[in-house]
Amino acid sequence: MSTSTHLTPPVVMGEIMSRADEVRAIVRAHHGTGKIAVFGSQVTGKATKESDIDLLVEFGEGTSLLDVVAAEAELSELFGRPVDIMSFRASGYAADHARRQAVLLV
C-alpha cells in the first residue's frame, strides 16, 4: 500500500479559511490592511505535506521587511508549516501569476 503525501486542497484551504480572523489579526499587527489572499500549491491542488502556504498581503505605507518577516514567522507557527508572504504591490511575472490564481481570504 503506497502512502500519498498529497493533501486534498479543500481540507488545507478549509483550515486556512477557518483561521481567517487569526491570520488577519497577525497581519494587521504588522501593518497589513487586512486584504489577504492564498495562492500557489494550496490553491492549485498540488500541495503536499511539506508544502508551504503562500499569501498575498496588502501592507500599509511604512511597512518594513522586518514586519513582513515577523508576520511570516507568526503565521508559520500558527499553521505548523512555512508561510511565505508576497505583497499585492509586488511587480513582475511571479506577482502577476500569483494575483491571477489568488483566492481571497473571506
From TrEMBL:
Its cofactor is Mg(2+). It comes from the Bacteria. Keywords: ATP-binding, Magnesium, Metal-binding, Nucleotide-binding, Nucleotidyltransferase, Toxin-antitoxin system, Transferase. GO terms for molecular function: ATP binding; metal ion binding; nucleotidyltransferase activity. Residues 22-89 form the Polymerase nucleotidyl transferase domain. Belongs to the MntA antitoxin family. This is Polymerase nucleotidyl transferase domain-containing protein.
